[in-house]
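Interim report, section 4.2 (structural modelling).
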Amino acid sequence: MPELPEVETVRIGLQKLVVGKTITNVDFDWPKSFPNAPADVSQFLLDSTIVSVKRRAKVLLLELSSSYSLIIHLKMTGQLVYRSKTEDFGAGHPNDSLVNPLPDKSTRVTLTFNDNAKLFFNDQRKFGWVRLLPTVEVPQLDFFKKVGPEPLASDFNWQSMKERLLRRKNTNIKAALLDQSVVAGVGNIYADESLWGAKIHPTRLARDLTDKDFTALHRALVDVLQLSIDKGGSSNSTYVDAEGRKGSYMSFANVFRREGQPCNRCGTIIVKTRVAGRGTHTCPTCQKLSKT
DNA sequence: CACTTGACCTGTCCGC
DNA sequence: TGCGGACAGGTCAAGT
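Predicted structure of the assembly:
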């Protein structure tokens, strides 16, 4: 579920909530959710303070005072939910979104802080993970070595996006957009939304796009990612931010999960198909199959 | 090499 | 209502 805007929304929340706090305990119930624990835990995690919360692509980085970092990937259904002790971990809290008590059956890892607040890593499908690594080794991970540029960075322009998309010139443009080594952080929602914005059909081959298409796609992608961050991300099913709140981007979506409804631009009924092995939402009129 | 498909998991929804 | 199968936002490994 969580793509760049959702992970960035979580990062903004955690930045506010956990920086400066010291970890006093860690629990985890599912070894794959914390693959290199527990050997390093007591020495490099307990009694260390969270120095910063960063994001690269869809990955969160919690830098610790121990010179180690917690690396967290939410994958499809991961959540990082913070609860202060005064919220009593959900019971009876006035905020509706905090009604569910934590931990629950999807809680995989729990961090406890020196003020008794807790950070819950919940993950229904168990695809996500938390890792503990020396901070200096993080850039050496295969994922970080190959991942593409941040699309919201100021130096990310349409020319560099074109150059990177053409590394996948013989595949369809949707598969190229979803490739994390091309551009960081794009997933199924924002691939569909940006292709609609640029009026490009997802099955067109990357090599067949014109410069006009590349400029439109760059503009549409940047705009849709920024809009979604402004709206707190997309809460399609399980996604919530660090305070347990849903995002509202889905009410601004033009095609994603809108099959059967009229296109906001031309009124044609949005269709759902399968492209690059993923559910794909398209306006069959606006999004041309061939060069314009 | 470039590209596509299957596997990792659990929960939900849809049709019979 | 029960049950099987398809499907869900991500990423690797294995296959073609």
